[in-house]
Amino acid sequence: MRKKAGCLLAALLAAALLVGCGGRDGSGSSLGEQDGASSQQAQGAQQVVFTDALGYEVRLDSWQRVVSLYGSFAEAWTLAGGSLAGATSDAVEERGLALGEDVAIVGSVKVPGFEEILAAEPDFVMLSADIAAQAELHGALTDAGVPHAYYRVDTFEDYRAMMEQFCAMTGRQDLYEQNAAAVGRQIEAVRAAVAGQPQPTVLLLRAFATGAKAKGADQLAGAILADLGAENLVEQHQSLLEDLSMEEILAADPDVVLVVTMGSDEEQALAYLEEHFESNPAWAGLSAVQSGRYLLLPKEMFHYKPNARWGESYAYLAEILYPDLAGEIG
Questions:
Q1: Which domains, and CATH codes, for the chain?
Q2: Is the pTM of this model over 0.70?
Q3: Is 86 exposed, middle or buried (0-12, 13-18, 19+ CB in 10 A)?
């Protein structure tokens, strides 16, 4: 699992403001980079300066009216004690946030509404670095004079760094302790419980209505599996990333097969698996199927970012991988 090369930016004297900057070994930053980044207080006004996940320098003087174009970032901001002026529809439909009537819905994750964003009069807009339609908004937001930053959260360390920054901005260190630091300790306890155990082999599938793909550590569940010592089949059989060969799966005979669905129609995704894999009589002979470890993972914990539930996600997978240790995990 890629480790975060973290850093804390300079503390604001009056506000004790810290801005987190997260990186990944030589590959750039998820949240911000250390080089040239700083936080400062000028003429009594707070200003935060950092480099975002796409390499843009961000300068913030205020974060009273925040618009988030990604539901998990909206949730993280509220977990840090912040309030929202606007959010995309997934904040309600997928995260279940109770936004209130005064919070504008500014389109969807993949089709954000630029006019709706401007109408919310934001002083800070959060965007996802991984969504093309959001990346394309950089020029328009810059021209409109709207401060904004791109974030990427793939691992718990990315989330922890985001919460470090957000809680420093809101001045709520108590919420950082509750929703990030305590979660980190829970994860460390799970890691310690499974340390040194034999490595189970795992096939991780992302299923959708028209197909299925094997996934590695670039998927949320895959990153946790790697951190817990599991051996993902795609590491041994790179061809599975392109072609889910039944023959190759049967020959590898994984100890565990896990499924994460994407898209709005989970039933169709599972129907695809039934038609193309489960209907093969040999599928029932897999060790994972025989042992009851061919499992569908909860979408809210392994497709959407779990945020304050990262610890639960670790414990959930650890109990699947190491069932004999279930009583020591949690």
A1: 7-184 (3.40.50.1980), 195-328 (3.40.50.1980)
A2: yes
A3: buried
